[in-house]
Amino acid sequence: MVTRTRIAPSPTGFMHIGTLRTVMFDYFLARQTGGQFVVRIEDTDQARLVAGAVEGLLNTFKKLDLDYDEGPVLLTDGTLGEKGDFGPYTQSQRLHLYKPYADKLLTDGNAYVCFCTTERLTEMRAAQMAAKQNPRYDRRCAALSPDEVKARQDAGERYVVRMRIPEGESRFVDAIRGEISFNNADVDDQVIVKSDGFASYHLAVVVDDYLMKISHVLRGEEWISSTPKQIILCEMLDIQMPIYAHVPLILNPDKTKLSKRKGDVSVESYLAKGYLPATLINFISTLGFNPKADQEIYERAELVKLFDLSKVSRAGAVMNIEKLDWMNHQYLMQLSQGELVAVVQPFTTLDLSSLTLQKALMIERERVSRLTEFADKLSSYVSIASYNPEVLVWKKSTKEDSLLQLTNISNVLSLLEDAVFDSVTLLEAAIKEYINSNGLQNGNVLWPLRVALSGLEKSASPYELLWVLGKDETLVRLQQAQKLIG
Fold it and tell me: What angle do CA 234, 244, 4 make, to 5 degrees?
């Protein structure tokens, strides 16, 4: 079966990390079958729109290197265009497409005009809640005659259109959760056309999915309660219902819903923290779905091939930052020197065209999880900040011995051929030969050497530092350390 999937965000801010997981599941399903992945902007709630949100969304797609087949696109001049044959892909530009369906619902008696004011509805719901009843519209306007409706409309009264929920039961087979059923008596008469003339979410989404030939609708589990309204609309309009799949929530470590109140939730915030796009996609795609028990790192093509909706967990998945850090480190370790320079440069003001800093990157990536951590790590390779000379003394040594060891190792290194400094392995072999042949303790020699080169109590190994700094800079720093401790 060739699938057509869609992601239909509201332009109210940045892309939520949970939305990214749904995007990836949509993407895998479409690519797996040679189908299409569609982006559609659901902006019928005009009061909640955020300027630039659509552009931000599309830029996030670009940063993640996610391609889609149809939807709005950012043109080179910064304006929005479209690609695909089922546009426009923004609901506010599709109002004329929804009207015939709303009219059919009214004509068939499956919808009615409602003139109730906001104040009246508020009082009604308050009374229902006081009586411990589920708040729902009481159908006061459902029995209005056509003549009365027309007269009130002609008089300029504001109104909405509500669907008339039938008796009985609504059921569907969720591709993740299995069969789900609802008692229609628990479903409210949903507004399908608002007083501003905009179709509501429920009518627009049903009509759009039908007209755009969407085969699978993937969305968060919080939308399960909306599904019976959409099933009923499909039946009333005699249109085919798509396959629904409700993805479980992403949770905080305390198992509460991931929300802005408890941490970052946007994809952009994770990118800004220094997580690689490939890491985010791998991590978020395997939250609640891991095709192989003995594997964590996947190529995107692997996930496309292995994805299976029926194997997505029904339980919420915890946003484990420690695992995300671990995974980002794995991806950093796979990058070439040129690739590493390219991804780190936006996170530091240092010019990474320097060979010394490029070598430092290759060493320091062993000790970082995020791109933001490189800036501090690299600073000591440019210049050493002032440090307490006592740090140069190994815990089992003395100041006098540390000075002696710094002097001697400096002499040893000055006699090494320049080519030795091109290899960490050769440098390590040369220094160990000096230590062993003179009956010295590793700590007495290596500790002051490492601190003299880095100015830090914790740093890369002295062999790595020697390789990065090179012979000339190494001797300069050792001389400075001797003066400091002497």
Answer: 90
Distance, in Å, from the CA atom of 259 to the CA atom of 247, rounded to the nearest integer, reads 16
pLDDT greater than 70 at residue 403: yes
Question: What tens digit of pLDDT does each residue of 327-356 get?
Answer: 999 999 999 999 999 999 999 999 999 999
Among 481, 279, 282, residue whose Cα is nearest residue 391: 481
Cα(305)–Cα(289) distance, rounded to whole angstroms?
13
How many independent structural domains does the chain possess?
4
Handedness of CA 57, 63, 64, 68 (dihedral sign): positive
* pTM, to two decimals: 0.92
> Is 260 part of the annotated catalytic residue set?
yes
Per residue in 224-242, pLDDT tens? 999 999 999 999 999 999 9
Catalytic residue among 62, 150, 260, 292: 260
Residue type, 67: D
Residues 431 and 417 in one domain: yes
Q: How far apart are CA 278 and CA 68, in angstroms?
A: 17
Q: Which residue has the tokens 């955020």?
A: 50
pLDDT tens-digit map of 261-295:
555 789 999 999 999 999 999 999 999 998 998 99
**Structural domain contains residue 289:** yes
Instruction: From 417, 447, 441, 443, select the one nearest 430 (Cα to Cα).
Output: 417
Residue 227 shares a structural domain with residue 258: no
Considering the domain architecture, whether residues 243 and 255 belong to the same structural domain is answered as no
Residue numbers of the domain that contains 145? 94-247
Is residue 436 located within the same domain as residue 449? yes
Strand-pair partners of 41: 90
